[in-house]
């Protein structure tokens, strides 16, 4: 639920991330990942590339990391992506057997 006043905004619901199936190429050494992300109804929206000059811009608003746990606890090596990114590749074969976790933050 998103509420506004003259001084602050309360956005109580986070973005929704929908991953697509992973595509593997080059004998499994390249993983191509894609996803969609949207802010829920009543949200204030997701970060965009146009906002990078804003001093409050959060460079880690969109990114991925690896975890040994399915629930993505204990993240390892956060890799930021540009806001608006919906696809990326992983070529690091040392990450085999770990979970890929996506992170998308909204503006609030």
Structural notes for this entry:
With 108 residues, this protein is mostly beta strands. The protein is built from no helices and nine strands. The strands form three sheets. Strands 3, 4, 5 and 8 form a four-stranded antiparallel beta sheet that branches. It has a three-stranded antiparallel beta sheet with strand order 7-6-9, with no helix packed on it. A two-stranded antiparallel sheet has the order 1-2. The model has no long low-confidence stretch (mean pLDDT 82).
Question: How widely separated are the two ends?
Answer: 12 Å
> Count of helices?
0
Strand tally: 9
Proportion of strand residues: 35-45%
> Helicity range of the residues?
under 10%
Largest sheet: 4 strands, antiparallel
- Based on Cα principal axes, name the global outline: elongated
The rounded Rg comes to 16 Å
Q: How is the topology of this model organized?
A:
Elements: E1 2-4, E2 9-11, E3 16-19, E4 23-25, E5 30-38, E6 62-67, E7 76-80, E8 87-90, E9 99-104
Antiparallel strand pairs: 1-2, 3-5, 4-5, 5-8, 6-7, 6-9
What descriptive keywords fit this protein?
108 residues; four-stranded antiparallel beta sheet; elongated; mainly beta; three-stranded antiparallel beta sheet; 40% strand
Short description:
The chain is mainly β and 108 residues long. The chain contains no helices and 9 strands.
């Amino acid at each position: 639920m998103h509420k506004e006043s003259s001084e602050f905004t309360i956005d109580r619901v986070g973005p929704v991330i929908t991953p697509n199936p992973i595509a593997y190429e080059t004998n499994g050494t390249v993983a191509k990942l894609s996803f969609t992300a949207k802010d829920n109804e009543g949200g204030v929206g997701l970060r965009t590339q146009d906002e990078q000059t804003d001093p409050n811009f959060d460079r880690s608003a969109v990114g991925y990391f690896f975890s040994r746990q399915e629930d993505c606890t204990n993240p390892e090596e956060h890799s930021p992506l540009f806001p608006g990114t919906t696809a990326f590749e992983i070529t690091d074969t040392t990450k085999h057997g770990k979970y890929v976790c996506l992170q998308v933050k909204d503006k609030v």
